């Protein structure tokens, strides 16, 4: 039993007293260096055991030290930890308060579904690098001037998710706080600087990752880290040696992480983990009011900055034949000249007032930028149809300045590919805005359509709690399905065409001759090389190639010369990040 195990440990300690300076005569030598008390050693047998198992890893983990996490619906402690003093933090606090009841209801529902499952409480550090003064904090001054809020929406929801799930949370918003949180122990250095971190997980971003590398030195252990990465990082850009040799090196990427450690705003590629955010939900009363108050000929334009409206007067003129157009463009004194006179501009609106505007409108119109933000989901949740431009050719790092330097070769087919692929008609209409007739026909069709408010489950509070809980508690995987892709096709597309999703965790299990034989690949030779499309078969020479570098396993990679071996799995409807047996 547990008591017997503790007795064995204690006996072992006393026979090995000479090894540990804090044991010995009456256990008094633990005072020889203040770093021992820093780690909680107080002269008691229990504190010795805890130190040796958790600070030095010399003894096995102590089962009785594991704590179960319990959902908490009181956000007061979280709001206190987030603090204030910057407009960005005030924005995040307002969002947390506004959605508090929604989070509480979701936590209760999830707890009822997972009742009986043990959930370990983790010690988690959240270091929001892009909001630190050391990174320039370019976002905070723009909050009240129409600047991008998507990152702050996501970070507010990540913090709330981790808090509501009941984990032991520490928040860092400066390099000084980061150093204090990581806690370099005082004293002469008897305690190991490269020992375990005081956290099980660290959530940060690329700015924070650089700061941690700089200030942690040898204590920097990458396996603890989860990187919030809006647009994602593909394996070809992540492996430093490969990216440098093959022209994929950018200012981001090259960290040699497991690509699942990058956590994205939308499910771009299964190579990364989908973190997401939440969309404000409606109660029955609000849904009734929307149905009652919808104005069929009212449109709202997606674009808080005047520059987004430049060159769009022709489309707006067509739309104005059918609808009254409203804008929310920021301005200080004079109305922006880019906004036509027939548009009613409300200026920059607080979130609640913007919600009220969307609940009246029938149409939410995007001009192509910004890419992949939260606003279209908010509009769809309030019963709007999102009309957006199709990109032909698709935008990518090869042909568009915005994506240049980002660690991904992903091709973006529209302003918001997630809404196009995962939601679609009648809530989302994607057309060629260069074709005036096609645009006008889309507007006419929208006027005839009756559309209910809609939120994908994975963007609800319950969906995000469920998904992040599964990540933290180590989800189980369902059975592998193996496919050979067509040439010039990624495993993302190959799996999707079969109603499945690519699962990079399976690549090590298919990187062998048995997998090639199972697909009747008819290999005339088998070699191992570093290439982000391997394992694969050369389409002309019937040469088969294994992957030599595990960090290059990639769902996203495409080659016109190869057919790829693709590991696929099923997924939960409305929760693409999780397999059917993951809960």
Automatic annotation (TrEMBL):
It catalyses: N(4)-{beta-D-GlcNAc-(1->2)-[beta-D-GlcNAc-(1->4)]-alpha-D-Man-(1->3)-[beta-D-GlcNAc-(1->2)-alpha-D-Man-(1->6)]-beta-D-Man-(1->4)-beta-D-GlcNAc-(1->4)-beta-D-GlcNAc}-L-asparaginyl-[protein] + UDP-N-acetyl-alpha-D-glucosamine = N(4)-{beta-D-GlcNAc-(1->2)-[beta-D-GlcNAc-(1->4)]-alpha-D-Man-(1->3)-[beta-D-GlcNAc-(1->2)-[beta-D-GlcNAc-(1->6)]-alpha-D-Man-(1->6)]-beta-D-Man-(1->4)-beta-D-GlcNAc-(1->4)-beta-D-GlcNAc}-L-asparaginyl-[protein] + UDP + H(+). GO terms for biological process: protein N-linked glycosylation. Pathway: Protein modification; protein glycosylation. The keyword Acyltransferase does not apply. It is found in: Golgi apparatus membrane. The keyword DNA damage does not apply. Belongs to the glycosyltransferase 18 family. This is alpha-1,6-mannosyl-glycoprotein 6-beta-N-acetylglucosaminyltransferase. It comes from Sinocyclocheilus grahami (Dianchi golden-line fish). The lineage of its organism: Eukaryota, Metazoa, Chordata, Craniata, Vertebrata. The gene is LOC107562046.
């Amino acid at each position: 039993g547990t008591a017997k195990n503790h007795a064995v440990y204690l006996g072992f300690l006393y026979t090995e007293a000479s090894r540990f300076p804090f044991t010995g005569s009456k256990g008094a030598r633990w005072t020889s260096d203040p770093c021992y008390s820093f780690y909680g050693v107080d002269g008691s047998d229990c504190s010795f055991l805890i130190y040796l198992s958790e600070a030095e890893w010399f003894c096995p983990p102590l089962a009785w030290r594991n704590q179960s996490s319990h959902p908490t619906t009181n956000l007061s402690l979280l709001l206190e930890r987030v603090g204030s003093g910057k407009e960005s933090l005030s924005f995040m606090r307002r969002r947390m308060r506004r959605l508090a009841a929604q989070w509480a209801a979701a936590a209760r529902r999830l707890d009822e579904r997972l009742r009986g499952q043990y959930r370990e409480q983790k010690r988690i550090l959240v270091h929001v690098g892009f909001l630190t003064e050391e990174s320039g904090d370019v976002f905070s001054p723009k909050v009240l001037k129409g600047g991008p809020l998507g990152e702050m929406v996501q970070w507010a929801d990540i913090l709330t998710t981790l808090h509501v799930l009941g984990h032991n949370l520490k928040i860092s918003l400066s390099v000084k706080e980061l150093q204090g949180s990581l806690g370099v122990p005082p004293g002469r250095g008897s305690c190991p600087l490269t020992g375990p971190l005081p956290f099980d997980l660290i959530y940060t971003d690329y700015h924070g990752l650089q700061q941690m590398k700089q200030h942690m030195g040898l204590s920097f252990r990458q396996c603890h880290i989860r990187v919030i990465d809006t647009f994602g990082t593909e394996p070809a850009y992540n492996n430093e040696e490969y990216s440098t040799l093959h022209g994929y090196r950018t200012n981001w990427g090259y960290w040699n992480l497991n690509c699942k450690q990058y956590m994205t705003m939308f499910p771009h590629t299964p190579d990364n983990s989908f973190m997401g955010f939440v969309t404000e939900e409606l109660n029955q009363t609000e849904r009734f009011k929307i149905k009652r108050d919808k104005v069929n000929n009212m449109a709202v334009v997606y674009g808080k900055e005047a520059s987004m409206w430049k060159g769009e007067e022709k489309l707006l003129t067509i739309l104005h034949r059918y609808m009254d157009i409203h804008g929310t463009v920021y301005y200080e004194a004079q109305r922006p000249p880019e906004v036509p006179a027939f548009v009613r501009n409300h200026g920059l609106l607080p979130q609640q007032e913007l919600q009220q505007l969307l609940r009246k409108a029938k149409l939410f119109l995007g001009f192509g930028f910004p890419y992949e933000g939260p606003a279209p989901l908010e509009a769809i949740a309030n019963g709007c149809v999102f009309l957006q431009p199709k990109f032909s050719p698709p935008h990518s790092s090869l042909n568009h300045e915005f994506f240049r330097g980002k660690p991904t070769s992903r091709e973006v087919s529209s302003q918001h590919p997630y809404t196009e692929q995962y939601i679609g008609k009648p809530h989302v209409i994607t057309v060629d805005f260069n074709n005036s007739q096609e645009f006008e026909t889309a507007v006419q069709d929208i006027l005839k359509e009756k559309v209910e408010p809609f939120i994908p489950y994975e963007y609800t509070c319950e969906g995000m709690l469920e998904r992040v809980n599964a990540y933290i508690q180590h989800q189980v995987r369902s059975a592998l399905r193996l496919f050979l892709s067509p040439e010039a096709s990624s495993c993302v597309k190959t799996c999707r065409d079969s109603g499945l999703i690519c699962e990079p965790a399976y690549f090590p299990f298919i990187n062998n001759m048995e997998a090639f034989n199972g697909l009747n690949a008819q290999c005339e030779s088998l070699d191992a090389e570093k290439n982000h499309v391997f394992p694969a078969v050369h389409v002309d020479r019937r040469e088969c190639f294994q992957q030599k570098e595990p960090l290059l396993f990639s769902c996203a990679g495409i080659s016109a010369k190869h057919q790829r071996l693709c590991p696929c799995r099923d997924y939960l409807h409305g929760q693409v990040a999780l397999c059917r047996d993951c809960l």
